[in-house]
Design brief:
By secondary structure, the protein is an alpha/beta fold. Helices cover about 40% and strands about 25% of the residues. It has 15 helices and 16 strands. The protein is globular. The relative contact order is 0.15. The chain binds guanine and zinc ion (ZN). Zinc ion binds near residues 78, 321 and 324.
């Protein structure tokens, strides 16, 4: 029998969607809980004393009062933007041209791509993130780099070659045919291999011709089990640009819909300034809206009305949007999601924020049967949070009357110092 490891501490488990039912019915904490790991998977979750006596041979790691929760799932990032995060003073289109495209051009060098992929996965594991859905660059090797580094770590990642055949520098443009061919080769090589998941990746409508969008829509129809990721309705200037590039489109979403790029396996990053028709269509097809609140604040895009979309039944994920986002931390991202919802008069509960960062994002990526909650048969992808990680948080926790007050303080004030341990596929990668 494979060795077993028992993590004891305060466990947090989800039993429902706290945007659909009262949060109290959807989440449980157990102050004397435990998670039993064998190989890459969780084989039991329950009471620590019971699991200890039932599995006396298991190695026990005690996390005391720390919160043992599912690893964070970051549903929209750009790993190639790791080294240029926190670049000053631009809005979306200028930010892309000034900082992003020159950095992404460096990924023509496979050794640079591998180095940044490893750096990205190390940094995010230190922040408790165990899965990310990332854009790569137009270079096929940038996809190989992230999947290879993730495979070394036994980690589930979603990525895909970013396709752009217009409105980008010469050295960052592909063509209709090469975008189709390269994406097809990559998805055949990687999709479903180990924990790798391929996402067909048109960057956004302004950088693809209608012909390229159609070719990628056709590829998705040929491989409907793949994900598709893109950007939607992030900034008002961008939306005006989309209207001028696609005069026949009813709205921004229609530029995807008309080319076979709307579906339940579609991940639509940002989606801030949606029209009623776009909201209706996303709800109808169950297209995923990925909320990127630090990025939306940092690039000045706006505050998504997430509670309104949740009320419409649109599946939601949460994301840092590294490097448009201003942090690698999903804790910091939950704080920004709280602040964005406050703009619309909806204080999200800590349980809803944590759900978004774990089970919600996992469901958005169609990986909810494998990750996103502590449950038997799920991968042992786990973040352990110290709820008193800094003086500022500890003094607030000293005043708190409940575990949820403690948790909320860490969500609002915490960073990588709050992540005491990260486990990926049953292996401890931060202790
Ligand atoms: N829209 C198109 N590309 C990007 C990107 O790299 N970051 C963000 N935030 N928005 C985009
Ligand atoms: Zn993005």
């Amino acid at each position: 029998m494979q060795k077993q490891t028992l993590l004891t501490g305060q466990t947090l488990t989800f039993h429902g969607d706290p945007f659909k039912e009262p949060w109290e019915d959807c989440v449980r904490t157990d102050s004397a809980g435990a998670v039993l790991i064998q190989g890459t998977k969780i084989i039991a979750v329950g009471d620590a004393a019971t699991l200890k006596s039932a599995h006396p041979e298991a190695r026990v790691i005690s996390y005391g009062d720390d919160l043992i929760c599912p690893g964070f799932v970051d549903a929209h990032v750009h790993y190639p933007q790791t080294a240029m995060i926190a670049s000053w003073g631009k809005r979306l289109i200028d930010w892309l041209n000034t900082y992003t495209f020159p950095e992404e051009a460096r990924f023509s060098d496979p050794s640079y791509a591998s180095a940044i992929a490893a750096r990205y996965l190390d940094l995010t594991a230190a922040h408790g993130t165990t899965t990310a859905a990332s854009f790569a660059t137009i270079h096929p090797m940038s996809v190989d780099a992230l999947f290879s580094e993730a495979a070394k770590r036994g980690q589930a990642v979603v990525t895909g070659k970013t396709c752009m055949d217009r409105n980008a520098p010469d050295d960052l443009r592909d063509t209709v045919q090469s975008a189709y061919d390269d994406s097809k080769l990559l998805l055949e090589k990687w999709h479903g291999k180990g924990r790798a998941q391929y996402a067909i990746t048109p960057r956004f409508s302004p950088t693809s011709t209608p012909e390229q969008l159609s070719a990628l829509g056709a590829l998705w129809a040929e491989h409907p089990d793949c994900l598709m990721q893109t950007h939607l309705s992030e900034q008002t200037d961008e939306i005006e640009w989309v209207h001028s590039l696609f005069p026949e489109a009813r709205d921004y979403l229609d530029t995807y819909e008309a080319h076979g790029l709307l579906g339940a396996r579609g991940l639509y990053g940002h989606s801030i300034h949606l029209t009623p028709r776009e909201v209706d269509r996303l709800a109808e097809v169950q297209g995923r809206v990925i909320h990127c609140p630090t990025s939306n604040a940092f690039i000045g895009s706006g505050a998504l009305n997430l509670p309104e979309l949740a009320a419409r039944g649109i599946p939601l994920g949460l994301a840092t949007d590294t490097g448009g986002g201003s942090s690698f931390s999903m804790l910091r991202t939950m704080a920004a999601a709280y602040e964005a919802a406050q703009h619309h008069g909806h204080p999200l509960h800590a349980a809803q924020l944590l759900w978004l960062a774990t089970a919600g994002s996992a469901n958005a990526l169609h990986l909810g049967a494998e990750i996103g909650t502590l449950a038997m048969g799920h991968y042992a992808d786990i973040a352990v949070l110290d709820l008193r990680s800094t003086q500022a948080i500890a003094q607030r926790a000293n005043r708190s009357g409940s575990v949820w007050e403690d948790v909320f303080a860490t969500l609002m004030l915490g960073d990588d110092r709050a992540v005491r341990a990260t486990w990926i596929g049953g292996a401890c990668v931060k202790q």
